[in-house]
Amino acid sequence: KNKSPYISTQSSEEEINFFLCSLPRQPCFFFIELKDWQELRQHQKGRVFQGLQWTNVISKGIKSIHPYCSFAFKRHRVKTLGSQTHAPIFTCEGYCCFEDCPVEVKVEVADESTLKAAVVFSGGDVCHNSKELHRRPVRAAARQATAELLETKLPRSLYLESMQKITPKVIDSGCRDDAPTTNVLKNISWSERTKTRSHPDELPSLKALIDKQRGTDSDVLQKVMMHPKGVMLWSNKTLSVFYKRCKYDIVYLDATGSVIKKNTAESPPYYIYELVVRNPSKGQSPLPVATYVTCDHTTASVTYFLQAFQTDVIRMYGNVAIKRPVMIICDGSLVLMHSISTAFCRTGLEDLLQKYFLLITGQHPTETFDLPILHRCLSHIMKNAKALCKK
Questions:
Q1: What is the pLDDT of residues 250-292, one digit of tens each?
Q2: 79-138: pLDDT as tens digits
Q3: What secondary structure, in 3-state letters, does the chain show?
Q4: From which domain of life does this come (predicted)?
């Protein structure tokens, strides 16, 4: 009674497993929603529906009966309005996309008043190679609905949520119609974003966006550089957060290169530099106040980013913000330390270290020392020491 849905065949090279299950008992049917049918009728031309939205409607209905096969459709016919023939209102045929699966399907709608769709399966029981995965393309209205979800969710998050909603037996069958891959979701998200661009090229589009947002509450995009490519982001709100937090708390400057992939093997990697302050609410995530995306990893590039941010802080709060941070922590990169020394301490790194030495040896009065403390992150020091010991 508790038979496994798998059978296996032994070959000379490897063991191949198959997912097996029987087809639903006849009769099978589902009902097409009236609004979906009316929308399809609006896109009817002759005896066919234009576009591919009809495949979404029919596959959704079939899946409510038999969710284990991923169907592709071969043909369909629609009865024209006013036709006096006794032919069905709608018919279509499809087949399972799995290579070893013989299942075929035929859907027929006989009466437009009920929109009852009779489903007939044929060909034999379900037989899927366990190493195969199949998904229906995300098309028409389904693509638009997915794009709307991706406005507030990352492709990876949406993919994981979709996988969690699939039942274990459907997972075993290899059918992934309800869980498009992350690459497909990324393409959908990208194509939808390009529709709102003011220019086909990305950088001119960003420049136009800066002009459009200037002076508004959504004025986050500050600078766009063409050569080398770079983008700087902060807002009046983040400037305010930085000014209030940095006087009494720590400021972090970090960089990561694992977020944005390179276009080609020859192109330089993109790094994301972020200036971060701690959240005043205990246990909450840190607050990024400025972000810099660039492929130019030089002291001059990072210094320009920090000085541009400092300029806007001083423009908002005056000269009292020139030496505002009490302590700045970075990972020990010479580029970051040189840039912090120049932008926030207004001196070179060697001179700054000399002043720190005089301070800790008691040769400089603490009352008159007003420079921010540049602190190298201890976890990075331990990581580097561990790597050195392994050599």
A1: 999 988 865 566 555 566 788 899 999 998 888 888 999 999 9
A2: 998 888 889 999 999 999 999 999 999 999 999 999 999 999 999 999 999 999 999 999
A3: CCCCCEEEEECCCCEEEEEEECCCCCCEEEECCHHHHHHHHHCEECCEECCCHHHHHHHHHHHHHCCCCCEEEEEEEECCCCCCCCCCCEEEEEEECCCCCCCEEEEEECCCCCCEEEEEEECCCEEEECCCCECCCCCHHHHHHHHHHCCCCCHHHHHHHHHHHCCHHHHHHCECCCCCCHHHHHHHHHHHHHHCCCCCCHHHHHHHHHHHHCCCCCCCEEEEECCCCEEEECCHHHHHHHHHHCCCCEEEEEEECCCCCCCCCCCCCCEEEEEEECCCCCCCCCEEEEEEEECCCCHHHHHHHHHHHHHHHHHHHCHHHCCCCCEEEECCCHHHHHHHHHHHCCCCHHHHHHHHHHHHCCCCCHHHCCCCEEEECHHHHHHHHHHHHHC
A4: Eukaryota
Structure tokens at 286: 């840190």
Q: Which of 119, 169, 159, 138 is nearest to 5 (CA)?
A: 169
**At residue 128, what is the residue type?**
H
Stretch 227-256: mean pLDDT, rounded?
Answer: 88
Q: pTM for this structure? A: 0.63
